[in-house]
Amino acid sequence: EGAASRTRRRRKASALASAMTASLCWARPKGGAWVLAERTESGDVILPDGRTLDTLETAAHNVSHTLNWEDPTYMDDLHEAPLLDLLRRRFQQGTIYTWAGPDVLLSVNPFRTIPRLYDLPDGWRRAATAAAERKSSSTPPHVFSVAERAWRSVLSAAGTPQALVCNGESGAGKTEACRQMLRFIAHASADCRAVSAAAGGAKEEASKLEDAVLNTTCVLEAFGNARTKHNHNSSRFGKLTCLGVTPHGKGGVVSSCSFRTLLLERSRVAGQAAGERSFHVFYWLLEARGLDPDSYAMLGGTARSPAPPAATEAADTIYAASEEEAEGEAAEG
């Protein structure tokens, strides 16, 4: 087949696609969401439920808008309507991550547990590493892909510092995204470390540091997270996590970590809105003592909700430390 023939065939296919979608458009009723509607020859727009409204916002439709893109920036004529529709369709399929170019990841909170979502098969890891080196978004969209690229960039010859920003509305999944990226980096640090048998102490020390990085997030959530109307584990503060990375062999290890907190919602200690709670730590410590938090006026007498992940462990750890200190002080006395 010659080049001219292939060109004619592509033009014919493009014309057919345009004809198929000429009668379709995106429409949004006042106060409603974008839907795919039909435009009649007279110019009327018919919604999926059969209604025809005068006050409609419309936008162009393209055949590429109906495909299941992992990166919607490859769509033709991308705008708000097809982007939101793509995120909705992927959410309904249980796919919560979507690229928006090579450096931005869109995430939708599934409000349920997705099996094996945060497993890390070796094959996926190798593919993520190769894509990171190419600065490509060809790997499946995932928080691990973002963390992998940052990790590889820090360990590159240039040693470029990296910043990962998690932003979104309350309940969007920022806390979980940060937790999973830290988990991935700790995992990558352990994988990249090749320590000889004679240096077992150094290996153990590094392992302790990685464990401490992951365990500290639970303590921060105890003192800075609370239940709100929309989220049972809402972060009521901002957090900056700084990781120091040292090259080691062909990879690197996490060598230091510091946390900086800001904008803590201190007013929540004195009072909470109806249906909300104070910070988790108050409830966990009282429950560890067998006391009912609802009987304390400072806690607002609000109904208790299921504790977030690792809440029980955090309460036990804090309580156990208090007991040990108390026993030590009694022995000294």
Structure description:
- The structure is a single chain.
- Mean pLDDT is 79; it is low at 194-199, 302-306 and 308-333.
- The N and C termini lie far apart (95 Å).
- The chain is flat, with a radius of gyration of 26 Å.
- The protein has 333 residues and is α+β, with helices and mostly antiparallel strands.
- The chain has 9 helices and 10 strands.
- The strands form 4 sheets. The chain has a 4-stranded antiparallel beta sheet.
The assigned structural class equals alpha+beta
> What's the helical proportion of residues?
40-55%
**Mind telling me the C-alpha Rg?**
26 Å
Number of contiguous helices: 9
What general form does the structure show?
flat
Descriptors for this entry?
two-stranded antiparallel sheet; 4-stranded antiparallel sheet; 333 residues; 15% strand; single chain; 41% helix; alpha+beta
Secondary-structure blueprint:
Layout: H1 3-21, E1 24-29, E2 35-39, E3 45-46, E4 56-60, H2 80-92, E5 97-99, E6 105-107, H3 122-134, H4 143-154, H5 174-192, H6 200-224, E7 225-226, E8 234-235, E9 238-248, E10 251-262, H7 267-270, H8 280-288, H9 311-332
Antiparallel strand pairs: 1-2, 1-4, 2-3, 5-6, 7-8, 9-10
Helix pairs in contact: 3-4, 4-5, 5-6, 6-8, 8-9
